[in-house]
Amino acid sequence: MSEKLQKVLARAGKGSRRELETMISAGRVSVDGKVAKLGDRVEGNEQIRLDGHNVSIQQSEEEICRVLMYNKPEGEMCTRKDPEGRPTVFDRLPPLESSRWIAVGRLDINTSGMLLFTTDGDLANRLMHPSRKVEREYAVRVFGEVDDAMLQRLKNGVKLEDGPAKFQEIYYRGGEGRNHWFHVVISEGRNREVRRLWESQDVQVSRLIRVRYGDLELQRQLPSGGWTELSLKDVNYYRQLVELPIERKSKVKVDEKAIDNAKARRIRRSVKKHQHRSLQKTRRRRS
Prior knowledge:
The protein has 287 residues and is an alpha+beta fold.
């Protein structure tokens, strides 16, 4: 069966479908020596070139949907390359040969916590799309006076510059003075939505940590800057959540525990090695 050209190229790790549609429209892609057009379909045995370079095509049945859970530290950018040379969330991820990691949404530079990556563009797009209403839960520390009336307004909905927004749930988690911790739940994931909701009430957000995406929580033993690959069971939880067919194969051993003490130590060692290499690169750039 034929597939859309941009889907085949996305599977080969050449970009998101939207990015590839732009490349095709710009005449940068050829199929069997002819400049491709948006809407072209391929069988998979054609010679496909991008900017004159041959593209190695991976057949759809060979794909294994992989999902990583990453504990993002503050200070990292959710972009593949930063023009200012700042660290990005992709710097620490394991390399792939014939595909690439796709971030499921974004966290801004001052937000930490659970960030998902997958090799399946369809899964990423569906998990992010507002129509799916996939819950995201955040731990948030706010500075300011908070009362019951304010919390009710935030649950009923307030008007932001890009339309009305609200928290599905708000749970108080304690605090002292004018600093208080809450857990809040949203299901849209608009840009800086949690911060902007609190700021609409003249309350400042001083810490923001994503702790849950869907029903899966950030694993407690996963250190900041560390990643772990999800089991077949958890991958299929996300796939069924957005109505995609289940996977039959996984890179993770069936009997492997989520994160035991030994695995947590290995992840911490890997994080420290990466931090050391990053520090050396920074020093070389400055010298």
